[in-house]
Amino acid sequence: MAPLDFSVLLRFQDALLTGLLTTLELTLICIVLGCAIGFFVGLARTSDNRILRGVSGFYVEFFRGTPVLIQLFWIFFCLPLLLGTELSNFTSAVIALTLYMGAITSETFRASLRSIGREQYDACVALGLPRWTQTTSVVLPQAVLRAIPTLLSNCISLFKESALVSAVGMTDLMFIGSNISNNTARPVEVLTAVALIYFVIAFPLTRAVTFIEQRILTKLAV
Amino acid sequence: MIDRATAPLVSVSGLQKAYGALQVLQGIDLTMKPGERLVVIGPSGGGKSTLLRVMMGLENINGGSITFAGKPYIHAGATPAKTAIDVQVRRSIGMVFQHYTLFPHLNVLQNLILAPCKVRGEKKSAATERANTLLIRFGLGQKATAFPSQLSGGQKQRVAIARALMLDPKLMLFDEVTSALDPELVGEVEQVILQLARQNMPMMIVTHDMWFAKNIASRVLFCAGGFIVEDGPPEQVLGAPKEERTKDFIDRVFHIRQ
Ligand SMILES: Nc1ncnc2c1ncn2[C@@H]1O[C@H](COP(=O)(O)OP(=O)(O)OP(=O)(O)O)[C@@H](O)[C@H]1O
Ligand SMILES: [Mg+2]
Hints:
heterodimer; A: flat; MetN_ABC_transporter-like (chain B); Polar amino acid transport system ATP-binding protein (chain B); ABC_transporter-like_ATP-bd (chain B); cell membrane (chain B); P-loop_NTPase (chain B)
């Protein structure tokens, strides 16, 4: 094996940075949209309405039960055919990862809604709170607080899963990394560096999850 | 004409409650006069909590009805799901539970003013002022901005009582509010309830604490197997019960009879 030469990284640092920014941009957009969808789908799944429960349940199970890669391919190649219009790479990636994120986070919201004990509902009735106040002032704030640690984990997963968009030709960090690696024939240096970039961003967040989780659990302990 | 002083505050007739096949209340008849303080005692599973939960409008019933201050309050329908509960009447009853039920994401003050502001449309400043007065009265003046997780069990229960009082209830229900507490914290909560008793607040109290029962009760009910087995003044039910089952229970649970 040829001696390692990390100077290739310096030559391509701008390209890598652009790739990283694309990855971050894509991840952040899908986090915001996905959490919004997940929140309402989580509510729908705990609702009394059967149709709402059925439709939302099907959506979640479908996206949890199929590989993300096939979801991406389907939205990249099949959706434009069905719609009869072109979709940009970025739009397709946003749609695919948002739907995936929505399904995942809806489970998080659903679990946190269910973790609110019967006592809290009893207290609302005993205080004569109207249903709307019960939902907006008591149930939702607690559910969101409880969801935060798992949501953060969901975000970290999405950040890592987003590397899959390179398979459909989106120029994210992974795509650029593997291109440089192929062109320079220096896979060890380049791919290690790319892995480290993902890790350096994800790791502190993983640690933060543990910390925040403890804080929230202490606060919500009744 | 009805004599206002003796007209019943609560009148329960033929109250039945089942959880599935389990018949928990088997036809309870009970009248409570204004200013009375009913202590409910009895073996575990005898239906004490269920009786209070029904009175609070937390459960559907299978039969019977309850009137409150002369107004129809709860009425059984053809099925439990059809139970009619008057929400306006329900607002004049307050309840404190054995489990802590403060809202953990709100501080003490916010816990107290949530219902007055949202239910009665009271101004925040007015509610806050009343809340602070109550907190000081209950020895919680320093805790207004604390979160429930920062309070001791005894403080939590005192806040829960204050929260219920913010709505000026005409009847208070206490279901074993000191059972989850460390022994040294029981007294401070009981003192607050005794303070309410001195102001003639009508109440129904489920407790296993003999000292407290004796000091607070104007009347004691012994409840077992879904029936009221004995109903009388504390000296009788606690001191010299007429029913064999009451006597057994008191010997067993309250150990020393004085
Ligand atoms: N939500 C419920 N679903 C099914 N059964 C219930 C429910 N709540 C209470 N029960 C049953 O009803 C019976 C009466 O319960 P209840 O809580 O009223 O008794 P209790 O007199 O308060 O007892 P304790 O002294 O243990 O608090 C018990 O057998 C209990 O298991
Ligand atoms: Mg009980």
